[in-house]
Amino acid sequence: MKVTIVGGGIGGLAAAVAFHRRGWEVEVLERAPEFTEIGAGVSIQPNALRALDAIGLGDRLRDGGLADPVAGVRLANGRWLVRNDVDDLRRRFGQWVTVHRADLIDLLVEALPARALRPGTDVRAVRPDGTVVHGGGETVADLVVGADGVHSVTRRSLWPEIPGPRYVGYTTWRFIVPPHPVGESVETWGRGERFGHLPLPDGRVYCYVMANAPARSRTGLDRLRERFARWHDPIPALLSAAREETVSQHDVHQLPELPTYVSGTVALLGDAAHAMTPNLGQGACQALEDAVTLAAVVDKLGVPAGLEEYDRSRRPRTQLIARRSRQVGAPAHWTSPPLIALRDAMLPRLPKSFFERSITPAYTWTL
Q1: CATH topology of domain 2-166+253-363
Q2: Percentage with pLDDT > 90 across the chain
Q3: Reported pTM
């Protein structure tokens, strides 16, 4: 049995490893000239770490160093808006790891035979019979996996009538700075903007900024430094340590809820199926869940029945988490002074159970 995977990001490569471990012939078609990621970290939350366990790679990440869950949310003046009990989160849900995306890509690539990897392959169309049209001709497989991101060629080929991704109104800057003492992972909210930082195992710090902005607008590092100069420590210092060439900016998009993730012998996974806002840090985590679930059910049940089971199990879950992510992040982007005052007064008073309802469904997944 052969599977062709369109897209060599985290989800696509994880699917390739999952199928390879089950004895399938695997082919990964990636548009970029090499398999890599630049300039950003990723939080591997407990559910994603269990997905990596399913393909034998979880302990490799744990060996690099464990991370703490996010300690909470602060205001620009440093006051805590939400304070998490990180020990309780670890006890209830499991371990967290924060890693550079490039290191995770390398780990997945190393688990695959070189013959399976075809970088520099521009996919142009996918057909429901398992045919993939690309710059080098055509390839046919028993199963095709569309893991080609938010602007998926696979999705557009098979569901041309479905609206494309929608800009949610804010953009994101991501970068990694040299080692700096930050203590814990924290997100800070202002008026229509926020700043987050997560320490990496080697002491470097992964940082992200989100801010309301017109679509396709671009803002440089100097402007970000001015914008956040009066926010609490260590935010100004982290921005000061950043280098312009390491900062990437991307508008945040979300897909409408698709009626199905499968067509013929083709399945979508990750952002191609359910691109979501980054507010719960679950984008890559859900792609990893998709990947190992797809391989498990198709290998067990066969392609037609396996795809039906994949859609039945994955679509409701991922669409629920996408909705939760959008809802959780919305108050950070309010700009109305009365709404912000209400937010800042009420969030510290909300019971612990209110926040648990948002995160528990994400963290408790098992294969």
Answers
A1: FAD/NAD(P)-binding domain (3.50.50)
A2: 93
A3: 0.96
